[in-house]
Each structure stands twice: as C-alpha cells, then as structure tokens.
Amino acid sequence: MEKVGRFGQFGGQYVPETVMNAVHELEAAYDRYSKDPAFWEEYRTLLRDYAGRPSMMYYADRMTKDLGSCKIYIKREDLNHTGSHKINNVLGQILLAKRMGKKRIIAETGAGQHGVATATACAMFDLECEVYMGTEDMRRQRLNVYRMELLGAKVTGVDSGTGTLKDAINEAMRDWATNIDTTFYLIGSVMGPHPYPTMVRDFQKVIGEESKAQLLAAEGQLPDCVVACVGGGSNSIGVFYDFIPDKSVRLVGAEAAGKGIDTKLHAATVAKGSLGIFHGMKSYFLQNEEGQIAPVYSISAGLDYPGVGPEHANLYATGRAEYVPITDEEAVQALEYLSKTEGIIPAIESAHAVAAALKIAPQMAKDQILLINLSGRGDKDMQQIAEYRGVKIND
Amino acid sequence: MTKNRIDAALECCKEAGRKALITFITSGDGGYEVTEKAVLEMEKAGADIIELGVPFSDPIAEGPVIQYASERALKNGTTLTGIFEMVRRLRKQTDMPLLLMMYLNTIFRFGTERFFGLCQECGIDGVIVPDMPYEEKDEIQGYADQFGVHNISLVTPASEGRIQMIAQEATGFLYCVSSNGVTGVRSNFSTDFDTFFDLIHKHAKLPCAVGFGISGPEAAKKMSGYCDGVIVGSAVVRLVEQYGADAPEKIGAFVKSLRDALDS
C-alpha cells in the first residue's frame, strides 16, 4: 500500500498520537479547500493586494557583464511584503486556519522572517499569535524579535539544545500537543508531517510559476539553471517545482556550509547528512551514529537546521536536483558583491544562492540563462554582517 | 516462545487483585550505576514494570524534567549500546519486565532488525515510541513481533475516533496518556476521565495503564481507579536530578509510598 504524504521513501507522519487527529483534520481541510476555487481566489487576491505579487523578475545586467558568462536573472522575493517569500505560505495557511475555525496560531522561526510573516498575517486577521524562537537566534535577529512584538505577537525564547530553529520547532510541537483543540501550527517550511511539506510547497510554487511565465515573456525560453538556498527548503521548492518536469532545467540548492563541511560547524544536510526520522518526517538529517540530531551551525539563522524537506530529499535521491554547500565567508562575499554590483542587499540566507550562482555562471554559455531566487532582503542582517566584518555600528 | 515478562507480570497483578505500578527512569542520568541501583530499588519497593528512558537529543514528547535528564545523560556519554550492556548486567540480578522508552530515530539509525534482536538477547520486553503513531508502526512492528518484544501503543484524550483501531492491535498494555501535551507532573488535569476511560474500556481487551503527570501517591491512587495500572516518570526522574548518586534510596522510598497508596 502506498502511504500518504510520501515523496519516494521520504516524508510520512511521524508525530505523537496526541496530534494525529489534528494532522488528519488539517489534511482533510486542505484536501477540501485546495479543490475550492473560492479559496484560491481569496489567496491570489491577498498575494496581489497585500503581499505585492507578482514579484519582479529582474535582469541583472551589471552582474551578467561582470561575470561575462550567461544571462543572470533575479526573482525578487525580497520585495514581497515582510521582506521574503515566507508571506506566500503564511497567507495560504492563515486562510485555512480561519476556515477551520482556529483562533490561536503558533509558529517557529529561525531568522525571524517566518515569524514576522506569521505575526503580520495574524495582526491582519485578528488572531492570537505565539512564535517560538531559539534564544541564540533572538540574539542574532533582535530586530525581527522587535518587529514580531510590534505586530502584536508573543515571542517565546527557547533555550534548550543550541537555541536555534530545531529547538524552536521542538517547543512549537510541544505547545501544539498541549493546546491541540484550539491551536493551528503554522509551519514555515516544507517539513514536518504530511500534509505540511505538500501544502507549504503548494503555497510557494507561485514563485516558480511566475518565474517561468516572466522568463518566457522576456526571453522566449526556459532558464538553463535555477539556484535557490535550502534550509528546510521552502523557497527552493517554490521556485523549483514548476520546472521539475522541464528536464533541461538544472536545479541547484545552496545549503549552509558554515565554517566548512569538513568542520563540525555547518548545516549542510544533503552533503553530510544521513537518512533518519525526525520532526514528523523521514528525510536526511545531520546526526551521529546513535541517531542523536547534530547541533548545527550557520551564520544564517534561516538555514541553521539539521534536516531538509522530504521532497528535496527525493529530488536529490532521484538525481533531479543537486545541492552545493556554501560557506559563511562565501555567502558574506556574495552579499557584498550583489550589494555593490546591483544595488540589491540580499538576506544572508539568499546570499548563499547568489554565491552558488557565482560559481556556476562561469561554466555556462553566453546564450544560457541562470535564475537566482532571491528569497529575502538583507536589512535584518546588517548588524550581524557588520559584526562578522568587525565593524561596530552600535554602542 | 517463552512468555513475555510484561504479560506475566500483568497477569500476576490481575490474579492478586492489585494495580500495576510502572515506573520510569532516564537511563544514564547520573551514570549507568545510578540507573541500575534505582531499578533494583524500585523492584524491591514494589514496582511491577520498569521503563528505561533512552536519552534523545530532541525529545519532543517530554516536559522539562525529562528533557533535562536526557541532556544530562547524553553529556555523561550515555549510548544505546551502553544501555544494552546495562540491561545485560541487570538481567543477572532481576527478572522483572523492562521496557525501553525511546524515539524512533534511535531505533531506525541503529538498524531495526539489529535493535530488536538485541532487545531479545539482552532481555528487553517492550518498547514505547512516542513519536511513532499507529499509521507508521510498520516501521518496527514486524521485527518487534519476530523477536517477541511488545510495541506499546498510546492513546490520548485527543485520540477520539482512533481508540478502537489502536486498542485492537495493541499488545502488552495500553498506555493511556492522562492529558494532551508532554510528560511532567501536573497539579490538575482538564481531561474528563470518565468519558475517556469509558471509551478505552469499551474497546480495549488488554490491561490499561495511565501515565503523564502523576505526581505522587495520592494522584497515583486516584488515577488507578480508572484502570489496571499507573505509570510514574517525571516524579522519579526529579529525584535523580535532586539527589544524584544518593537518588536510588530516595527513589526506593518514593516508589514504596506509591505501592502503599495503590494497595491501600
């Protein structure tokens, strides 16, 4: 029997009994409303009028000339309301939560972008909102903590483990099990138990659909390569998905190599991980021989996660997509490069994709097209990048 | 195949007309020696079945007490292999039923067949895997059956409409979770126990034990009225946190107080 919610051998519903009914309830609700044109109409209207979609497709002329190789296009998810692709998924899930009659929303956040998007939508829809965030991430992303609080959300720090995204998810899952009757868990990436990986992908695939139409209009052809950063993998699956059947399009995910994949300080799950079962799914995880989940590291709080979404695991296992590790230093250099070359300051997460593009572009031909998904903007990272470069901008 | 020790112990309780007392301790918290001594003390004090927690880096079903215990145990260098060695030593001194409470990834990573083979060889009678629901139990059920190890099923107040399905295939005992959420002692419960246990007893043909949140003798006595046994975990683990190497004696006294309350 083919089990539900699988991508090849990956995925599944490995969650405590307490949340199984809630998972099934969500599955049924998503199944029902994803067939309801009125649901998608409301979603698309919100994307247009509130999030600012379609996001722009920008031809990076200076970068193209500077590299002297293929044509480089940038999908500007950084220009969405709240500053990243996260709003696409949040608006979809909020509409679902509303239809399910849920009054309380919880979320986990790493860099704070998903938390900010969730707090934003909860403000607009007048829903109670609590965001779990690792205390180390709260330190790195103080600005986003303040933004969430300003938007009316409660931000709860999580001190256990490494105080990062994984620990925030653990705590959100505990909250969900405790308040299962009232609470909707708004997961921010293509991870967790089915139906989340599928549902979140469906709410993010607009990135790839728009990209395809925009590139066909501008160039009359598909891109030859699409690059995006991968933590859990929502912006990357979003931009990849519509291109999966187009076998000529090379799909490349950039994962966080931190201080280098031969050190202990990285979050390069595909490069160094192994098959495991955690956070509701069977996928690749960074773990030791005993199955203890590894304490991972990246300069980027949004990529600082020891697993990867099950659909990515399957894209990798089947050879449809490839995943390259990008170090902190490469990402920071790419952030500086894009800022100076195109006047676009990318989020440190998205800078990993830019860094991968900088490596791939020189191998491509002049008439080829490389698309970078710029998942978010870098305002939130200025303090940390300055710190990394030894520049003091605050007392 | 010889009779599973869990079944034998629960039959024995039933015949004697007494409630089963199931206690939990995190393996390796304070060192293996503390766990070993505590197990023997708990047996002496009247525990019928003991759950040995296998520490995991990310125990999503646990409250703070067992989370911290897992963290301490892992820092001590506790490993699954080490726990199996400890069980081998224990088996020279006791024949009481022993279970492992653990997360699925630990089994999966160790190798499911190898894991259950070792369970049988070392004398583990059952496993409780809180992050593996009914729908995913094929992950381990085949090997658990093959090696005569019970895969203990859980039902919770949020299991409405699922209890029959789960209870029908459950073996050993049915683990009835007292309230939604994570492990840890509670001062009050919001669950409507009459309704919850009516449903359970309607469908469950096997012994039922209630756990999660039972703080001491009084709560144990009260909860035991609903089913065949009670499970006490965090309250035991807290004694290890508090008393370290001196914990086994304190645990013995605490378990004795639970036993006395249940028998009163």
CATH topology-level fold name of chain B = TIM Barrel
**DSSP, total strands of chain B:** 8
Total beta strand runs of chain A: 14
Measured distance between first and last alpha carbons of chain A? 62 Å
**What is the helix tally of chain A?**
16
Strand content of chain A: 15-25%
CATH superfamily of chain B: Aldolase class I
Low-confidence stretches of chain B: none
Which structural class is indicated by helix and strand composition of chain A?
Answer: alpha/beta
| Overall geometric form of chain A | globular
Largest sheet of chain A: 6 strands, mixed
Helix content of chain A: 40-55%
Main sheet attributes: strand count, strand direction, barrel closure of chain B: 8 strands, parallel, barrel
Q: Strand order, biggest sheet of chain B?
A: 1-2-3-4-5-6-7-8
The ordered string of helix (H) and strand (E) elements of chain B is HEHEHHEHHEHEHEHEHEHH
Radius of gyration of chain A: 19 Å
* CATH architectural designation of chain B: Alpha-Beta Barrel
| Total number of helices of chain B | 12
Overview of this structure, please?
The complex is a heterodimer of chains A (395) and B (264). Chain A is 44% helix and 19% strand. The termini of chain A are far apart. Chain A has 16 helices and 14 strands. By secondary structure, chain A is α/β, with parallel strands linked by helices. Chain A has a six-stranded mixed β-sheet with strand order 3-4-14-9-10-13, with helices on both faces. With 264 residues, chain B is α/β, with parallel strands linked by helices. Chain B has helices at residues 5-16, 32-45, 64-75, 80-91, 104-110, 112-122, 138-146, 163-169, 193-203, 217-224, 234-243, 247-263, and strands spanning 20-26, 49-53, 98-101, 126-128, 150-155, 174-177, 208-211, 229-232. In chain B, helix 10 (217-224) links the parallel strand 7 (208-211) and strand 8. The longest helix of chain B is centred in the last third of the chain and has 17 residues, at 247-263. The mean pLDDT of chain B is 96.
